[in-house]
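Researcher: Please translate sequence to C-alpha cells.
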Amino acid sequence: MTISMYQASVPRIVNMLTNLDHLLSKAHTHVESKKWNEAALTQFRLYPDMFPLTRQVQIACDTAKGLVARLAGVDIPAYEDNEVTLADLKQRVAKTIAFVETFNAAHIDGTEDKDIVTKRGDVETHYKGMQFLLNHAMPNIYFHVTTVYAILRHNGVELGKRDYLGKV
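Model: Translation complete:
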C-alpha cells in the first residue's frame, strides 16, 4: 500500500490542529478555574530563548497553511500575528483548519518532486515536495504543537497523551 502526499499532509495537519484547539480549550478552562490572567500562560516560554505559547501556535498554523499552499501552488494567506488571548489563538487554529480543508487529493497528490523554495530573510532553502513535507513541514508542526503541550503541562493544565494524539 502506498501513502499519497495528500494522505500524509492534509488529514494529519487537520488532526494535529484539532488536537491543538483541544489543548487550548483545556488551557482556557484551567485559566478560568485558577482565575489567572491569560497572559501568564499565553506569554509563558519554557526557556528564555524559546518563543512563548502564542508564537508556538502561530508558527504551527503558519507552517500548516504554508505547506498545503506551496504544494498546491496557491498563495499562502497572510495572518496578522496579533493574537493575545486563548480565544484569539483558537480562532487562528480554526481559520487554519478551514483553509487546509479546502484542499483535496487532486491539489496535493503528484507534488512529490515539485520544487519548493522557502525564504527567511535573504536565505533561500530549496526542497522537493516530498522532502519539504516529510523532513521540514510536518516535523515543524509537530514540534510547535508539542511545545504548546509542554508549556501547558508545565503550568499545571491537566493534559495527557490522549489530549495530544486526539481520537485518531
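Researcher: Any highlights?
Model: Residues 13 and 64 are 7 Å apart (CA to CA).
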